[in-house]
Automatic annotation (TrEMBL):
GO terms for cellular component: membrane. One of its GO terms (molecular function) is L-amino acid transmembrane transporter activity. It holds the Pfam family AA_permease_2. Signal peptide: none annotated. The chain crosses the membrane at residues 12-34, 46-66, 94-118, 149-167, 179-203, 223-241, 261-283, 314-341, 362-383, 389-410, 422-444, 450-467. It comes from the Bacteria. Its main location: membrane. This is Amino acid permease. Keywords: Membrane, Transmembrane, Transmembrane helix. InterPro entries: AA/rel_permease1, AminoAcid_Transporter. It is a multi-pass membrane protein.
Length: 476
């Protein structure tokens, strides 16, 4: 194991069940709840199918969370799935998971959510841009770092600012997450109540598909493909639920509280998403959301609230999106940095990441390394592609965690389990089957995104062999 000669602190178990549950909710609720109803409506053409996809994606996420909870209750520690995979599958697979989080999954989440924050502010106050000639300059004919530069710089400023917040201490970051999450949920409740009472909507909007809607049998393969494509958008809305496992070294009684936080947090988000999207589709017909998607410059939630509260309402939702994406960026940065610290502590990441600040008791260098790479992803500008890739990569490892339920029951049958997954073996088996179908469907329907995602995962192999060899050469 790698050690450091610097004087450093230690991770402190200070988070209770309530704070852990809030972290689960705040790591999930970001931009998806405000934007994804539009692309899903364009794909499905039916309000009923849109709500069905939100529910199905939520149930699938809950199955994954329940399965993840059993593994977490057995192996809870800082680092989350990295720790689980090391026990279940060995060092190499654990490293590939951690590297994937750094290369694309978590860093891309931070970059993308911060970018949405900056876009939302740009809709209120136009940010500066370079001239078209400068904006179109590219690197390798792929990246355009100077395009939309005002939005990108603001996103980077947000990432750096929240890194500083979390650098200064867990309590500071935890308190910020609690305040932001409470504010977002309160505002969402207000929008739902107003939309259902004074929004001027109708149940006819829920019951009426688009004129271009084509009815299909549930056994029709084309319907299955459409549902899975739409659920990619929904899964982006649910992404992040497993991140609380990274905080295993800072949660009180983690073997009990992590499973409970996962269960309560995901159930709460499912309820919020269903009620909010029902309100959207109650207020406006599905054709309006299809037009919103085609316009590419309108956020669905803003259009809904503007319908019954005018410009003032649109301003309110824009500010709410700023708050939500601010909070989600903060929570994602807070949690993921613990993973890289754990990897470095075992000699499988950049050496300086294995350091706990002696005053603030935070993985300070891990936070800084994460901020640097997330900022580079912001400049890359390929956010939609990154989103598709991170969902694809995430479900590879979600499925692997759930398979670990079966592996651990075989390898460690007599070890006490504070929590056992409900409905075993059906629930975890169904989730694994779903992961396989989603991965195969993405390989067929989105080969470019899937291929790049796999490539980014495999780029970790040279680093793994270098760090492994280096550790052997320095060991005694």
């Amino acid at each position: 194991m790698q050690t450091t000669t610097k004087t450093q602190g230690h991770l402190v178990r200070s988070l209770g069940l309530f704070s852990a549950t809030v972290l689960v909710i705040s790591s999930i609720i970001g931009s998806g709840i405000f934007k994804k109803v539009a692309p899903m409506s364009a794909e499905l053409q039916s309000p009923g199918l849109v709500l069905f996809c939100w529910l199905l994606a939520g149930i699938v996420s809950l199955f994954g969370a329940l399965s993840n909870a059993e593994v977490a209750s057995l192996l809870a520690d800082a680092g989350g799935e990295y720790v689980y995979f090391r026990t279940i599958y060995g060092r190499l697979f654990a490293f590939l998971y951690g590297w994937s989080c750094f290369a694309v999954i978590r860093s891309a989440s931070i970059a993308s959510i911060a970018y949405v924050f900056a876009q939302s502010l740009n809709s209120l106050w136009t940010l500066p841009t370079f001239s078209p000639e400068v904006s179109q300059l590219s690197l390798f004919g792929i990246f355009q770092p100077f395009d939309n530069i005002g939005v990108k710089l603001l996103a980077i400023i947000l990432i750096c600012s929240l890194t500083w917040v979390n650098y200064r201490g867990l309590r500071f970051g935890e308190g910020l997450s609690n305040i932001v999450t409470g504010t977002v949920v309160a505002c969402i409740v207000l929008i739902v109540i107003a939309g259902l009472t004074v929004g001027g909507g109708s149940f006819a909007n829920i019951q009426t598909p688009a004129p271009t809607y084509v009815s299909r049998s549930w056994t029709d393969p084309s319907l299955i493909n459409i549902l899975f494509t739409a659920m990619l958008a929904a899964f982006w809305g649910y992404e992040g639920w497993s991140s609380v496992g990274y905080m295993g070294g800072e949660i009180k009684n983690p073997n009990r509280n992590i499973p409970l936080a996962l269960t309560f947090g995901v159930l709460g988000v499912i309820l919020i998403y269903l009620v909010v999207n029902f309100t959207y589709l109650y207020v406006l017909p599905v054709t309006d959301f299809i037009q919103i998607h085609e316009s590419k410059n309108t956020i669905a939630a803003v259009a809904v609230v503007k319908h019954f509260w005018g410009t003032t309402g649109a301003l309110l939702v824009s500010v709410l999106i700023l708050i939500a994406t601010f909070g989600c960026t903060n929570t994602t940065a807070l949690m993921a940095s613990r993973l890289y610290y754990k990897m470095a502590n075992q000699g499988l990441f950049f050496r300086k990441a294995d350091y706990i600040h002696p005053v603030y008791n935070t993985p300070s260098y891990s936070l800084l390394i994460q901020a640097f790479w997330a900022s580079m992803l912001v400049l890359s500008g390929s956010f939609d592609q990154l989103t598709d890739m991170l969902i694809f990569a995430s479900f590879i490892f979600y499925g692997a965690t759930t398979l670990g339920v079966f592996v651990l029951r075989y390898k460690m049958p007599d070890t006490p389990r504070p929590y056992k997954v409900i409905g075993y073996p059906v629930i975890p088996a169904l989730f694994i089957l779903f992961c396989i179908v989603l991965i195969v469907n993405t390989l067929i329907e989105r080969p470019r995104e899937a291929g790049i995602g796999l490539f980014l995962i495999l780029t970790g192999l040279p680093f793994y062999f270098y760090w492994t060899r280096n550790n052997k050469s320095t060991s005694v």
